[in-house]
Amino acid sequence: MDPQTREHIWEYIERLVAEQKLSIVLTTHYMDEADRLCNRIAIVDHGKIVVLDTPENLKHALGGDVIRLRMSTPNLKAIESLPYVRKIDVQDSTVSLTVADSGSHIQEILGVIGKVDSVECHPPSLNDVFMHYTGRELREQESGRGGWQR
């Protein structure tokens, strides 16, 4: 759908729920759509519900903000011992971190991890939640990627 039609449909669904007091079951692969329209979300993987909760609770359960670093040779040992780093995932040249209060700690992380090509930092999204519970964005075979979790 084009963005205008999508917005009109979202508004229609929100109006139906508010005015008619309806429960609507929505299936979608678009996490922004689920975040806006749903008050409970079930993430299904291989035909089984792996988690069910409110969007806010699901995002909060990740334990912190998400920092993605593109780099060729990360110094993972230097950040594994940092108490506010909750999780480290490495995929190709991207290091993804879950960090408590990233704003207070980003400078220290950048100072110890090594040369960084780019940095992305954001509060957890439902995309991050999906990745956390399913381990992948697409139906790909497990590729033996490295991972570390506190």
Please tag this protein with its features.
150 residues, alpha+beta, elongated
CATH topology of the largest domain, which one?
Alpha-Beta Plaits
Distance between the termini: 41 Å
Low-confidence stretches: 137-145
- Count the E strands: 7
According to CATH, what is the class of the largest domain? Alpha Beta
- What structural category do the secondary elements indicate? alpha+beta
Detailed description of the structure:
Helix content is 38%, strand content 25%. The chain is built from six helices and seven strands; from the N terminus they run H-H-E-E-H-E-H-E-E-H-E-H-E. It is elongated, with a radius of gyration of 18 Å. The model is unreliable at 137-145 (pLDDT under 50).
